[in-house]
Amino acid sequence: MSTSQPTPTSTDGPKTRPAGLLRRCLKMPIGVQSIIAVGLGALIGTLAPSAGEQMKILGEVFLNLVQVVVLPLVFPLIVLGIARMESVKKVGRIAGKAILYFEIVTTVILLIAVGLAKFTGIGKGAPVQEADAKDLDGMSQGIDFHELVLHAVPKNIFAAFSEGNLLGAIVFALLVGVAMAAIGEKSEPFASVLESVASVMFKVVGYVIRVAPLGVLGFISYDVAHYGFGNLRSLLGFIAVVYTGLAIVVGVLFPLIAAIYRIRYVELMKSIAGLAGIAFVTRSSESVLAPLMGKLEAFGLSRSTTSFVVPLGYSFNTDGSVLYQAAALVFLANAYGADTSLPALLLMVGVLVILSKGMAGVASASIVVLIAAGNSVGLPAEGIALLLGVDFIVDMARTGVNVIGNSLAAAVVDSSEKRREAKRGGRETPGIPAEADAPALRKEPAQ
Known about the structure:
Shape: globular
Structural class: mainly alpha
Strand content: under 5%
CATH class: Mainly Alpha
CATH superfamily: Sodium:dicarboxylate symporter
Distance between the termini: 65 Å
Number of domains: 1
CATH topology: Proton glutamate symport protein
């Protein structure tokens, strides 16, 4: 008698395969998932534009999830980073180094952009008469520095948090951190609470990043469906110059800076590549702010430096954005036949050096700064409307470079501080610890 077991029916395979495929997709690295989402989004935006525009809600939900967790995480990290520093003098020293670095690197990048744009002659013969100034309706025609200062020093910190005012939160966190460092051990209970909050927020950020591919799918679907590629042909030269300039910055300038400060640039790029990619496709550097600081700590940077320099750089160190603005100004100057002599170009650089530091907290920041800079050098705002059709293409690249630039800035400041401490440690009397008088808050807990 046959005792063979019944074979599974053929209907079992189709039921289990989709589930197994889904599990395998979910186990893929976030970067791979995001690349797949880019392809699907481009396909949906091309073949079904109406559906593509509706999918923007996925991207907006993802950004809302990011924004809701950014300040609750950044605030305790900055406070604890400042409180663990040995003195207020160190806080001022790190801030000074960071701002000096931002200014020098920003100026060099602006000179690279202006020189490249001048050399290639982009903008000559551009169809600026086709630009529709209505596209600029609702955007500020300039930057009010009075409002910028008030933005940095809010009268209500809870309102600043509700508005997502990162610059105001940084200033308030700086004050709280200095106060905690001043009172020493009495602030330890509050420090414990902040450490708990930061740990919980890091976990929440992990959950949010897992849905990043859905945000990528939504944004790419919308961008392809809404903007299309109508203006792409006439503006290919401008796009090529911006991408070439950004490639020079990432491939030449940044490695040179890293070599000067003995930073392992290739390893740094590998550690943050996935996050830079997410920022690239979502066009939001805030989407990776929290995990970026975690990656930099894992790379070897101190938490006190990272938690202070990176958020500060998000407000004052937008390397990719300033390169785009410089190239755009030269493009418009050539298109309108304006003066592009050396003094005029240096004037553009000077104006952008000042205005680019007022980007924090301004909606459509790059476009607003571009309008203000154009007005300052006598260029009509109407021409900027022509660039809006391809803004999403260059916005992706400049956002990714902003993330890389701020990571390098934190590494440079941290390297400088470690060199200083090493020199100071070498001068200490043998047998006496160099940091015997450091306050208790300086000990950094493991993440």
